[in-house]
Amino acid sequence: MSRALNEKGDIRPETRDRVREAAEALGYAADPAARALVTHRTNVVGVVVGDNAGHRDLSLIFFGKVLAAIARRLGGEHYEALLMQVDDLASRPVDAAIVIGMDGDEPLIVECARRMPVVGVDVRIEGGETAFVGSDHAEGVRLALAHLHALGHRRVAHIAGAVNTVAGRVRLETFVAEAERLGLDVPDEYIRRGDFSSASGYREACAALALDTPPTAIVAASDLMALAVLQAVWDSGATPGRDVAVVGFDDLESAALAHPPLTTIRQDRQELGTLAAQRALELVSDPVSARRESIVPVELVVRASTARDRTRNTGAWPRFTRRG
User: Fold this and answer.
1) Which of 50, 68, 164, 166 qualifies as a cystine partner to 102, CB 3.0-4.6 A?
2) Can you tell me the mean pLDDT for 276-280?
3) DSSP 74-137
4) Taking a C-beta distance cutoff of 8 angstroms, is the pair 168, 221 a contact?
5) d(CA 77, CA 85)
6) Which CATH number is correct for 30-135+270-297, 3.40.50.720, 3.40.50.300, 3.40.50.2300, 3.30.70.360?
7) 146-175 pLDDT, tens per residue?
8) Considering only CA atoms, which of 246, 221, 249, 219 is closest in space to residue 231?
9) In 3D, which of 189, 231, 194 has the Cα closest to residue 214?
């Protein structure tokens, strides 16, 4: 019976189905602890959400859909997703780990990768049985700049995310390279250092708008920062979308409800979670054949926060008067 329920041995499918029907009729359920002793597997994947950007709550805002997708995909294979602290990976037996919002060189993560398969969502971990799943951050920035360039914007600022993260670093590097390729005018003061939070977005947007020659467009490395940029533009006495174009990155639910609705780069958070779970399952069952890198496409979503550069017609740069 146990061989049929655990799908072991050369048992015919029809026999396995009859055994399962009988087990259900008798109310039989396999003991997870006993199964783990036999198979050396727990059917549990530990999921760790860190705070390498300094804001764990912000990570959970974005990664909520990712976590739900991880749980669904693992559940389809009779695995459990267990949200835990990284310290717990050392004491709680799990078959694999999925790591989000942490540095890939974090000592505890490196140590875990020596003992079990680890999948990083926007986290690159060297060595061991590891895999990487992430969005195409570079393409997202290229889409944003191409959109603004087509609207006539040539003075474009960037509010970067935390550069100790894959997302923050790649988006910043791509912005600098792509702005140069397009011939945009990006002085040093147009590169603003944020950390993905709304507070940093507001602070850096205010600083950019106060420059002698302010940008006509701002690309923020997260929607939370971009939403704060919209408020900063309003507070400067200008109108976002009309006077200053704003582009975010993520397409959070709040982006479409902003005033004005936010143009942004949409990440497929469900696909990120599904692929992370799939890579973890593959590393557990067949590490030799498992895919080690998966890049998820992104999409430009155009809304009312971007419009043509009005200064191209007047030849004058806007001067903003901050509202009290």
Assistant:
1) 50
2) 97
3) HHHTT-EEEE--GGGGGTS--SEEEEESS-TT-HHHHHHHHHS-EEEES----SSSEEEEEE-H
4) yes
5) 23
6) 3.40.50.2300
7) 999 999 999 999 999 999 999 999 999 999
8) 246
9) 189
